[in-house]
Amino acid sequence: MSAAGRVGASSDSLDQDASGDVVRRLTARGETVACAESLTGGLVTARLVDTPGASAAVRGGVIAYATPLKAALLGVDADLLAVRGAVDADVATQMATGVAARLGADWGLATTGVAGPDPQDGMPVGTVFVAVVGPSVVVVERLALEGDRAAVRHGAVDAVIALLARSLG
Known about the structure:
Blueprint: H1 11-29, E1 33-37, H2 43-49, E2 58-63, H3 67-74, H4 78-84, H5 89-103, E3 107-113, E4 127-134, E5 137-144, H6 149-168
Parallel strand pairs: 1-2, 1-3
Antiparallel strand pairs: 3-4, 4-5
């Protein structure tokens, strides 16, 4: 049943349906996913592993909250970080690529952005980049999310899982 057809379903249950769907699809395909997270601080990985049987598809996650860790742990180009900062489309793509390589996954997801309360790297609060890298797929989206810190972080989680779902075809 589509989300629109669910009467009384909470937003959390709909969000879990989306993540459960991608975990089931990855499992059926025999593929795996790993997450590189900055502003989401582990929320993407947590959402995915809430699905029973997630261990068949989820390899793990790296929380690289501090900018230098994006280079040290995920292989993001240090010069890119120095010039553009952490809130950048190419940084998100390199994070996703790096986490997939380091954790041995078919798919890499990444979130980087500004949850607030203050701007970062010249970017306003709510600016988020989400990326998905997989077999013959490299996609990144820039988001302008509204709301408080929690709303921005949860919006980023929803967006990267939706991007993975679309990328899976």
